[in-house]
């Protein structure tokens, strides 16, 4: 599945993506606001990620679907649906710091949410954001998500409990 918006595409990860994934994701500014992205993040992590996703693609029932944010063949970011269960799923994303502030992720979130609600026929797509992550909260607002409330001690980051702001878009 490929979704296009302007000069960017959302498409499956593939062999050969490893150098651009590692080059764009390996940043403390990305790790600090996410739960599943390590730092440092080298080629070995990128290889595991590409393999994980190609194994996933062969499964009939998928509880997650991940996409590269592609610019001219290079992976500049990632976006995905996880915890796909019944009528709902969680959305998550990251973008290489060199590309921040151009409205790329809001457009990617809009495209993937439309796909989730229309093609996957989900009724609800939600996102959880650390309260300090103002940029991500803004991304969701711009993509038409509604703020639903604060989940107290929802996640653990480096073993410490963190609140999360819950956003959702429904059909
Ligand atoms: C969050 C992230 C995906 C944003 O992507 P992006 O494509 O740069 O998003 P935008 O171009 O819309 O820019 C961010 C918006 O937040 C605003 N913003 C950024 N930092 C801000 C801050 N500290 N306070 C308030 N607003 C802020 C920007 O002004 C912009 O809004 P605007 O267009 O109304 O001016 C990117 O910063 C990122 O990858 N962060 C690290 C990983 C991450 O946080 N993932 C999400 C986990 S929930």
Please report the first level of CATH classification, the CATH class. Answer: Alpha Beta
Bound molecules: coenzyme A
Number of domains: 1
Superfamily at the CATH H level?
Gcn5-related N-acetyltransferase (GNAT)
The dominant shape is: globular
Which regions are unreliable across 5 or more consecutive residues at pLDDT < 50?
Answer: none
Strand and helix layout:
Layout: E1 3-5, E2 8-11, H1 18-25, H2 28-31, H3 43-57, E3 65-71, E4 74-85, E5 88-95, H4 104-118, E6 124-129, H5 134-142, E7 146-157, E8 160-170
Parallel strand pairs: 5-6
Antiparallel strand pairs: 1-2, 2-3, 3-4, 4-5, 6-8, 7-8
Helix pairs in contact: 1-3
Report on the architecture of this protein.
- The protein is an alpha+beta fold.
- The chain has a single domain (3-126), classed as 3-Layer(aba) Sandwich (Aminopeptidase).
- Helices cover 30% and strands 37% of the residues.
- It is built from five helices and eight strands; from the N terminus they run E-E-H-H-H-E-E-E-H-E-H-E-E.
- The chain has helices at residues 18-25, 28-31, 43-57, 104-118, 134-142; strands at residues 3-5, 8-11, 65-71, 74-85, 88-95, 124-129, 146-157, 160-170.
- Strands 1-2-3-4-5-6-8-7 form an eight-stranded mixed beta sheet, sandwiched between helices.
- It is globular.
- The two termini are 22 Å apart.
- The structure holds coenzyme A.
């Amino acid at each position: 599945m490929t979704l296009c918006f302007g000069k960017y595409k959302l498409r499956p990860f593939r062999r050969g993506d490893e150098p651009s994934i590692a080059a764009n994701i390996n940043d403390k500014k990305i790790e600090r606001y996410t739960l599943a992205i390590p730092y440092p993040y080298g080629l070995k992590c990128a290889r595991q990620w590409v393999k994980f996703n190609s194994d996933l693609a062969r499964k009939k029932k998928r509880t997650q679907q991940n996409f590269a944010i592609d610019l001219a063949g290079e992976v500049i970011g990632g976006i995905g649906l996880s915890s796909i269960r019944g009528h709902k799923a969680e959305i998550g994303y990251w973008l290489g710091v060199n590309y921040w502030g151009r409205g790329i992720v809001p457009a990617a979130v809009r495209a993937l949410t439309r796909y989730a609600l229309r093609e996957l026929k989900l009724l609800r797509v939600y996102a959880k954001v650390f309260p300090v992550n103002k940029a991500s909260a803004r991304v969701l607002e711009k993509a038409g998500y509604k703020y639903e409330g604060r989940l107290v001690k929802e996640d653990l980051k480096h073993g410490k409990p963190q609140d999360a702001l819950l956003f959702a878009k429904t059909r």
